[in-house]
């Protein structure tokens, strides 16, 4: 069975339905988002809404590869799309392995170089200068958003900048050809899917 066949949508229960303007019930899209850390989890958990798609957000045990592997194991007709939100850590070998694993299992990747904190930073400012490390990206984010820390990520601190972040991320990486372009992030693809309420890219 192919990943696409495994994702064939089944009829959802009443709780996964919403009414359109004519009063007809519509099925809500359902996403599984697996993250490697609490920062990512808290951000996407904060995107849940009554009118938006159904979101299951989780942090599997293990490193980058384990996150992608578990995501592949959980691809099923329960979800319209399964995503992993992971960092490249500026490691080409690691990134290539994650891309292969995701492609083989029908999982979509939201990759950030060097780390997810770049995505958060883009909600507030433009930034195109390469980072030397993930820690340097985190330090800059703290300078721009003093209330932020890795243990206290609040979507409310970023919600007004989501459109700007998507625009800036697209401009950083217009061709999507090299996930290790520093800096770059493809998380905008996931976020735009969630905002549309559709699993399509």
UniProtKB/TrEMBL annotation:
Residues 1-22 are annotated as: Disordered. Residues 11-22 have a biased composition (Basic and acidic residues). Residues 1-10 have a biased composition (Basic residues). It holds the Pfam family RloB. InterPro entries: RloB (IPR025591). This is RloB-like protein.
């Amino acid at each position: 069975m192919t990943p696409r066949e495994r994702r064939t949508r089944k009829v959802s229960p009443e709780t996964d339905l919403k009414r359109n303007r004519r009063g007809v019930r519509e099925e809500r899209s359902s996403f599984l988002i697996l993250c490697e850390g609490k920062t990512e989890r808290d951000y996407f958990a904060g995107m849940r809404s009554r009118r938006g798609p159904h979101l299951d957000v989780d942090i599997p045990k293990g490193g980058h590869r384990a996150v992608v592997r578990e995501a592949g194991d959980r691809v099923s007709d329960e979800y319209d799309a399964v995503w992993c939100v992971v960092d490249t850590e500026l490691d080409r070998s690691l990134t290539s392995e994650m891309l292969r694993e995701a492609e083989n299992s029908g999982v979509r990747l939201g990759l950030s170089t060097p780390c997810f904190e770049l995505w958060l930073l883009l909600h507030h400012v433009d930034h195109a200068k390469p980072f030397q490390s993930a820690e340097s990206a985190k330090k800059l984010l703290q300078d721009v958003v003093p209330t932020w820390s890795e243990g206290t990520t609040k979507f409310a601190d970023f919600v007004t900048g989501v459109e700007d972040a998507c625009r800036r991320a697209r401009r950083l990486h217009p061709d999507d050809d090299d996930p290790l372009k520093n800096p770059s992030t493809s998380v905008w693809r996931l976020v735009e899917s969630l905002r549309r309420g559709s699993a399509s890219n």
